[in-house]
Amino acid sequence: MATQPSASFVLQHADGAEEETDHVLDITGSQLHDLLDVELPEDLLELDLTANRLCELDGRIGKLSQLQKFSLRQNLLNDDAVQPLGQWSSLFDLKELVLRDNKLTMVPPLSGFTSLLVFDISFNELTSTHGMAKITSKLRELYASKNEIVNIDELEHFNQLQILELGSNKIRVMEGLHNLTALQELWLGRNRIRAIDLCGLNRLEKISLQSNRLSSMLGIQDCARLEELYLSHNSIFRMEGISALISLRILDISSNKISKVEDINKLTRLEDLWLNDNLITTLDGIEDAFSGPKYSLTTIYLERNPCAADPGYISKLLAALPNLQQIDSHIL
Questions:
Q1: Residue 1: pLDDT over 80
Q2: What is the largest CA-CA distance in the chain?
Q3: Which of 74, 260, 301, 326 could form a disulfide with 101 if both were Cys (CB 3.0 to 4.6 A apart)?
Q4: Verdict on whether the full-model pTM lies above 0.85
């Protein structure tokens, strides 16, 4: 029996009027090996084939000239299987393409997709980002986490990119980022990076460098717009280079080797501070150390530091930070 679209799509016209249509086909989780029994209306706007068993692409997909979003997440597609994408000119107006969680070893040929805004090729077997140079510079979001990528290259032309996700790869050096001047979010957790080099990317609002090989926080001091900074599970010895990050709301430097709270006395917007699993020995002088975020801080984690064994642990924190709502896992 032919599968029919399972959801409606609200189309918004230029004058603001909305029209409800049935141009979305969602057959996620159906474990299909092919689409022989699936009807593919040529006026589809969205096609979601997530969590099936597809090893090749149905040729009818190449005729969906109105398609805006196309997801092939969690299938069994290899490089040969996705080669037709580059030849199907009817798909070249696609805005979002998801190839996440397949068996790809290289970036497919997508030079004709001149309207592409979102591209996800995470959870594959890529060893490099070779081929990204042929993807349109209009791209706004690029996801390539959980691959085997060693170097960051062929990304220089993405001057409109806002989100870059390269976590869980084998990257050792932060390079090839200097032209990404519109970047707002950079996710590089679970790599092998030893030093922070943000190449003057002063529009960044979120950075994750968790689970790398950092020994220093230096390199982030010019990111004045930064709101969220994640540096847990490294080998950082000192809190430094963050005093100018006056927009910072969340700071996670848990599971490092920090022995003293410092350099945050100007962070008057800081709300969440994660310092658990470090080497902080005492709470003496915390009033001065926390003078900046005294009234903004609502959550703090200090458990599994030597100072957490202080009999007055909770009371001292509350005296220094009167607006706390959570200490470690304890909701106040």
A1: no
A2: 72
A3: 74
A4: yes
